[in-house]
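Quick review question:
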């Protein structure tokens, strides 16, 4: 099993929804951790118009092995028609932390 960590970013309309989704994804072991940044300003093009809104950014920690399942579950939970789900591969990290991520998202955790 690969322990390659991924950071996945997603935005939400409000902090309550972000917290609810983050908790579910941690409880269900799709992510090891979710950092909620409660205030970001997003400017974007949507359906031919330029929009600007306050949003909540969440940074999820998962692994490459769990990414497809994570993405599918996040899409099912997310209220947006087309949610932002972008994953990045860190180039380096504290090995013990990266192992903790892998252990935390393992469907069969070692107790």
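Suggested answer, residue by residue:
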């Amino acid at each position: 099993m690969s322990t390659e960590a991924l950071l996945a970013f997603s935005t939400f309309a409000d902090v309550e929804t972000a917290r609810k989704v983050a908790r579910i994804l941690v409880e269900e072991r799709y992510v090891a951790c979710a950092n909620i940044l409660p205030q970001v300003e997003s400017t974007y093009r949507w359906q031919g118009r330029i929009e600007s809104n306050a949003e909540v950014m969440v940074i999820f920690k998962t692994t490459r092995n769990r990414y497809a399942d994570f993405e599918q579950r996040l899409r099912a939970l997310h209220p947006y028609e087309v949610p932002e789900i972008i994953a990045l591969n860190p180039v380096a990290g504290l090995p013990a932390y990266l192992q903790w991520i892998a252990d935390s998202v393992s469907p069969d955790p070692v107790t």
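Why it works: The two ends are 17 Å apart (CA to CA). The chain has a mean pLDDT of 94.
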